[in-house]
């Protein structure tokens, strides 16, 4: 029975032994004092409404009383002993604690309306402790084999996910930021852009026109690079990761000799192994075909160049994790560790559809699974204040259109990709599709028409040769549009396109 005489704060404290006999953390006196304050003066609700919910009360009856108070106040009605009595008399909700008269007892438990916020924080803190107890019990039960299908590693990831969700959803932090502080941040960002060549306030990508369009890569942003197979998604993401790592080294060198870069670039390669990705980077930088490197078909001069470039690249603050089918919780844990130990400035995930949701979760559909992954990536970007670039496949409906340039509706398996992303970019190479549409002499009635079609096709191929388009279909903080890029298929290398002179900047 609930009476005003209750156990002291955090009832159930004791040693580690006899865990099953311990009472979950609660403070019923604080719950009663809080409800009494709310019933005495509904304005006290303003101090607790942002973070307190009915389920946070240890006593379910107190939770129901709070829900009734909450419902009436949010409907603009008075919630006190008189107005709530008929509701509880009719429902019989308070019968086991003495009936509606219990409301009057709560009023007598009130110490002071001014303390309502403090009481609410005590109630919330006890709830968080109970959740931690539940997580601990779940971890113990799983470790003893309650869910035998989960390996020890997956159990660890599931526990980390539960703790992360609890920290994210159960915290009382947040709220308003003064406009003065927000303005200060905006001015600092503008100052960085003003003092940086090219007006880049974020982390440079190594692609001039992309930086001009976006201002670089910004913390807390989730960016999606999508495209059909063979369009060069991985090559573009690698180029951006490489450009960002180079920018971090340049920044450290400009600040003084011997200074280490302020952070690293983390690439999670779910499709390619770390050595395959390293070979691709070496191929791009040394301008030696990756296919020739794999076959050993290179000269001594090429090999010397290869070794020289590898030494240069080894100094870059770039790390690769090639764990296949990594879960969102494992990725978050590794990013946190990297941020804490070496600093973290950019995360690249290749690619989205190969990831798995947190261990221990069982989404009902693939769409819900992708939604959980994109929400998790956005949460990582915000929590660690780093830009996250995730690659994504596109649906096959692109191939059925005459104009095969991708659209937002082509994003595969979930509209949540478009919804959660701050920026969506599509990689498109017209040369790839033109090569598949070479005229065939057998389909023409006479040689003249075939020659005419072949001449036009060759002109189109020449116009599209070594060119790619990066279509910015969504940008939450800036304009959309198309950026022309240079693409060398031999080295799977993207670069800036100098449209005036037809050359690659930086060669």
Textual characterization of the structure:
- The structure is a single chain.
- The protein contains 17 helices and 10 strands.
- The protein is of the alpha/beta class and 507 residues long.
- The chain has a 10-stranded mixed β-sheet with strand order 3-2-4-5-1-6-7-8-9-10, sandwiched between helices.
- Strand 9 (493-498) and strand 10 (503-504) form a beta hairpin.
- Helix 1 (28-40) crosses helix 4 (101-109) and helix 1 (28-40) packs antiparallel against helix 5 (116-143).
- The model is unreliable at 1-19 and 500-507 (pLDDT under 50).
Low-confidence segments, given as residue ranges, are: 1-19, 500-507
Proportion in β-strands: 5-15%
Q: How would a textbook summarize the main sheet?
A: 10 strands, mixed
Report the structural category. alpha/beta
Give average pLDDT, whole number. Answer: 78
Order of helices and strands: HHHHHHHHEHEHHHEHEHEHEHHEEEE
**What gross morphology would you assign?**
elongated
Describe the strand arrangement of the main beta sheet, using strand numbers: 3-2-4-5-1-6-7-8-9-10
| Radius of gyration (Å) | 30 Å
Q: What portion of residues is helical?
A: 40-55%
Please give the count of helices.
17
- How many beta-strand elements? 10
In whole angstroms, the N-to-C terminal distance is 81 Å
Helix/strand layout:
Elements: H1 28-40, H2 60-74, H3 81-91, H4 101-109, H5 116-143, H6 152-170, H7 179-195, H8 208-214, E1 222-227, H9 233-255, E2 264-269, H10 274-286, H11 290-295, H12 300-314, E3 318-321, H13 328-341, E4 344-350, H14 366-384, E5 388-393, H15 416-420, E6 423-428, H16 430-435, H17 447-464, E7 467-475, E8 481-488, E9 493-498, E10 503-504
Parallel strand pairs: 1-5, 1-6, 2-3, 2-4, 4-5
Antiparallel strand pairs: 6-7, 7-8, 8-9, 9-10
